[in-house]
Amino acid sequence: MALAGSACPGPVSFPHVRAQSSPSGTSTSDVALSAAPKVDMHRRPSSASLPASSLDASHIAALAAAVRLGGCALAVAKARGRYPRPKRCMRIIATATGDADENDDSSEGDSEMSLVDMLIKKSRNTSELGICTRDWHPDLFEYSPDGYELAVEAGVDFVDVLANGPALKLLANAPLIDKQPRYNVRVVPKPTLGLGLILNKRLVEHFTVLGPLQQTMNRLGVGYVESLTIHCSQGRLNFPFWVYDAVAQAYQRGLCMRIGVSCRSATAKDVEKAQQELQRRGVALSCVFIELSLLDRQALPLVQACRDLGLQVYASEPLGPDELASGRYSSSNPTGGEISVPRFTLAQLMPLRPLHDALGDVARKARARCEKPEIDTTHVALQWVISKGASPLCDVTTDSNARAAVGCSGWALTPEEMEKLDLAADEVSKSRRKW
């Protein structure tokens, strides 16, 4: 591939390259563009093969042409053997032209640190709602639930799905929606029965992680997924080294945009270890999946630890087991407003009465304060999870849950309301032990 002047119609402007006019009236940069040497873009020389001080006018002009085509970073990367930041591209040209500033190193370091701090702060404050498909099964649903379409069209488009799970059939047969869902695929690495150290490395990586991921992507009809999450269903968050190798391969091949981990009993040390293992392979850990609700608050210290590490936290079962933390089913309303046989007995609902009463009071105050008549106890339960720094993954098999997930935007709980819910949850945890 030749970066020549003929590939760039019109003048090329580059702020770090000073164009000097020749006696014939033609600028030096235009002459250099036409005389730019051909660059072999398939060769990867070492990082020391082309120092910045050795760049002549032809190299500068080639880089300027690449900027015109929007490929400055790619051109420098292929020439230097790695992928630098755009600012480093500017420094290379400035050094070759004599425009380099003595304070560039310090300014670049300051900008890099400020960028890292900005990204970490943004990730700590990021909260979005998603869709959980754990309870979807073809035996229960002929098609995808109606709440799924309602939530995705309203912007709740992050869908958590288990690799090769039963929900894939429903998602594959779901009607076409204008907005494409963003999938998170949870892969439970297959056990190798002690043969992971003996068998071929590529075979092990494909068998444990890459194979299930690609099969799930084919069934969903997508070329890549938003997140790839390695899930540990039992025990501690601990994976063999070939699992991390496979995850890094999936990220480097463009099969996923982010990497996450999932384990019910994970600790802050386990997450830090997983983060270090991925960093050693040149990739970063982006998110952690836990279980958090008003009836299950054991993961609250882990949420804070993940926020300190700049990781986004997703909460499964934000409405509690069997949605008992939603306030929809209470001792005064055991059917949840439906004309049917009660799902729960009074012995199950009476210990939860303090929490359900607090949810009702907070919902009434929030409706009056935010002037949103649609706010109910389910909205409040989801907002409590958001207030703790986690992104709820809501089951939208019912329209009421889908409307609650959609209606959580534009308002938040006050500190007094959060404290009231925390006190009620403390009282429930004590009474449940007695019952």
Helix proportion: 40-55%
Shape: globular
Classification by helices and strands: alpha/beta
Query: pLDDT under 50 segments (min length 5)?
Result: 1-113, 119-125
List the helices and strands and how they pair.
Elements: H1 28-34, H2 57-68, H3 72-80, H4 86-97, H5 104-125, E1 130-132, H6 146-153, E2 158-162, H7 167-172, E3 182-187, H8 201-220, E4 225-232, H9 241-252, E5 256-263, H10 268-280, E6 287-291, H11 300-308, E7 312-316, H12 346-349, H13 353-370, H14 377-387, E8 391-394, H15 399-406, H16 415-434
Parallel strand pairs: 1-2, 1-8, 2-3, 3-4, 4-5, 5-6, 6-7, 7-8
Helix pairs in contact: 1-2, 2-3, 6-15, 8-9, 13-14, 13-16
Provide a short characterization of the protein structure.
The protein is an alpha/beta fold and 435 residues long. The protein has 16 helices and eight strands.
Commentary on this structure:
This protein is α/β, with parallel strands linked by helices. 44% of the residues lie in helices and 10% in strands. The protein has 16 helices and 8 strands. The protein has helices spanning 28-34, 57-68, 72-80, 86-97, 104-125, 146-153, 167-172, 201-220, 241-252, 268-280, 300-308, 346-349, 353-370, 377-387, 399-406, 415-434; strands at 130-132, 158-162, 182-187, 225-232, 256-263, 287-291, 312-316, 391-394. Strands 1-2-3-4-5-6-7-8 form an 8-stranded parallel barrel, surrounded by 6 helices. Strand 6, helix 11 and strand 7 (312-316) form a beta-alpha-beta unit. Helix 6 (146-153) runs parallel beside helix 15 (399-406).
